[in-house]
Amino acid sequence: MFGLSKRFITFLFGFLALAFAVGAILLFTPQAGQQARGQPILWVNGQAVHELDLLRLQGGDPLYAASPQGLLRTLVDTHFLEQVILTEALKQDAARVRVGGAEVRREVDRIREQFGLREKRAYEMFLNQIGFTDAQLRAEIRHQLQIQKRLEQIRSAARPTPEEVRFYYEVHREDYRTEPRVRARQIVVDERGLAEELLARARAGEDFALLAREHSRVGAEGDGALGAGPGEREPRPVSRVVFPEPVAQAVFALRGPGLVGPLEAGGRFYLVRVEEYLPPRVSDFEEIRERVERDAQAAKGDAALEAYLEELRQRAQVRFAEGSPYAYQNPTVARVGEREIRLTQVLQPVFGNPQTALLIQQGLGELAVQFFLPQALEDLIERELLVEAARASGLPFIGSRDEIAEAYLLYRTQDLTATEEEARRFYAENPAFFTVPASAEVVGVSFREEAKARAFREGALRSRDLQGLARAQEGTATEYGTVRPGQLPVILDQLVFRVREAFPEGPLGEVTEVLKLEDGTYMVLLIRNRQPELVRPLGESLEEAKELVVARKRQEKAEALIRELREGAEVENRLGQVLAELAPPREEAPEEAPAEEAPATP
After folding, report:
1. For a pLDDT cut of 90, what percent of the chain falls above it?
2. d(CA 21, CA 307)
3. pLDDT tens, residue by residue, 437-456
């Protein structure tokens, strides 16, 4: 059995997209003369794949960049050739799909636009560099468009039944949980004194909407009503994204009606009156039926595509030329019941991980084999156990094998809950989960001369014209935005987050001393809206703590379920034996000749 995971399907689409993006990768056999393509290396359903085709593809594969040797080379070759075989089989199957000349022209035009090949001469040079004629490039683009259309045909033809759609919703209910929202009005002003005055007036009973209409710099025409449309004056439910982060934290910490502020964010001051708090909830099925149907359709399409590619690979007749420079080995490395797991299935997630390619390029490919391959195989074994259990349940799970395995775990662990006492204990034992890192809005202005940096600093303590001050002293301003510890260069990070004392403050915020950098330039930092690290209070964090307790319980139950399935199944793991068989024999050092004995002394 040649199983194809969703990861590989995603990879395949990326593989095709890459060819479109660069135009220069020879993904499929070009229409060049046979002599220019070298000798055939393999045949897929009788169609030859030639030496030069593979070398060009190999040249764009980072796994070959470090010239892997021994067992690693066999594994890389096997992974590479499995992609080529499936892609060639897919190309052949898609050949009957109609693609119009206009579609090909649009794609050629897109490539020319992307690479700046508007002039005929530049385009001809490009074709010469990649070894294509215009006709050959268009033929390749046609093949790739055929493949994309064929894959989309398979996906779109799969239709979930009403029963499958409803069950999909029941399993994935948490995906349809709304965010907490509020109905609220806000007043935004530029001066803290005015904000505090308006707060006092609101607390004294003055109409908040009228105060917003008279004073707010944002939304005054709507009486400060958040979420209101044009001409409306009544607030609509909004989520936390409409507020600056420090304001959102305070607003949603109320978990009910109330007045918040003044809070500074982005140089302005916010007052917010929350009229109603709407807690998160799972949307009713009828409310979001269309969305669920789309999601179920996508899952059913993934399953159809996975089955199609698996069948396509199973039916492919593959023959290798004698003396091939590539090693292709695809033995069974595990059995789960009657289902086999082949080596190529395990190599897909391992070699599809960019970290693996990096390790190979650093000469640590053996480490990747020893560490990642066994774990990848264990993941596949667990997946097969879960898929079999899902099918044995008789319930209408849909999706790729990966999706069904995940859905089965969700279904079996969905009724777990957490008490308030459990949440309180988790909060006390895990403060890191509820800690908001320190933050600050930072601008850095750099100068070549110290005197100009000092002149800028003096001006920044009096003026708010940042660009004018920087320009006058030939400085360059860099907006770092809102940053947290560890996001700035080390020396700047220490200045912002490690220095305990505040710097002198001007209209642009805190102004640091002139700092000399390692490259000999000078910098002044402007710091605004500095927020210290804080642990969110229990009242604000209780619901989140409950969710984390439930997540931990679900993880523990899932692990127990997998152990139970494994104990009751026939599982054979042959990976160690297979790798030992594929590893080239080690050359034994020649034995040293015994030293001649010195003649005995008479």
Report:
1. 56
2. 28
3. 898 889 999 999 999 999 99
pLDDT of residue 512: 94
> Which residues, at least 6 apart from 303, have a Cβ–Cβ distance to it below 8 Å?
158, 398, 399, 400, 403, 404
Structure tokens at 448: 């070549």
d(CA 146, CA 95): 7
What is d(CA 386, CA 374) in angstroms, rounded to the nearest whole number? 19
Collapse the DSSP code of 43 into the 3-class scheme (helix H, G, I; strand E, B; otherwise coil) and give the result: strand
Please answer whether residues 50 and 64 qualify as being in contact, where contact means their C-beta atoms are separated by less than 8 angstroms: no
Rounded to an integer, what distance in angstroms lies between the CA atom of residue 343 and that of residue 333?
6
What confidence tens digit (pLDDT) does each residue in 17-76 have? 333 332 323 333 344 444 467 889 999 999 999 998 888 888 878 888 888 888 999 999
**CA angle centred on 563, ends 557 and 565, rounded to 5°:** 100
Instruction: List strand residue ranges (DSSP E) for 407-491, in order.
Output: 435-436, 439-447, 476-483
Tell me the C-alpha distance between 380 and 1, whole Å. Answer: 13
Can you read off the two tokens belonging to residue 392? 């044995």
What is the β-pairing status of strands 268-278 and 522-531? unpaired
Nearest Cα neighbor of 382 from 161, 549, 563 is 563
pTM over 0.85: no
Contact status, residue 135 vs residue 124, Cβ threshold 8 Å: no
Question: How far, in Å, CA of 340 to CA of 334, rounded?
Answer: 6
- Note whether 77 and 85 are within 8 A (CB): no
Residue 243 phi, psi (nearest 5)? -105, 150
* Type and span of the H or E element at 264: strand 258-265
Task: Give me the residue label for tokens 């190529």.
Answer: 344
pLDDT mean over 323-331:
91
Cα 419–Cα 422–Cα 428 angle in degrees, nearest 5: 145
Q: What is the DSSP letter of 536?
A: P
State how far the Cα of 397 lies from the Cα of 410, in Å rounded to an integer: 11
Give the dihedral of Cα atoms 452, 456, 457, 458; nearest 10 deg: 100
- The values of phi and psi at residue 28, to 5°, are -125, 175
Structure letter (DSSP) for residue 184: E
- Which tens digits make up the pLDDT trace of 202-225? 888 889 999 999 999 888 888 999
Percent of the chain with pLDDT over 70: 91
What is residue 14's predicted lDDT score, i.e. its pLDDT?
37
CA nearest to 544, candidates 443, 374, 420? 420
CA distance 113 to 81: 33
* pLDDT recorded at residue 588: 56
Give the chain's radius of gyration (CA, Å).
32
3-state secondary structure of 409: helix
| Cβ 56 vs Cβ 130: under 8 Å | no
| pLDDT, average across residues 129-154 | 88
The count of residues in the chain is: 602
Q: Are 549 and 426 in contact (CB under 8 A)?
A: yes
Nearest to 271 by CA among 194, 205, 181: 194
Amino acid (one-letter) located at 491: I
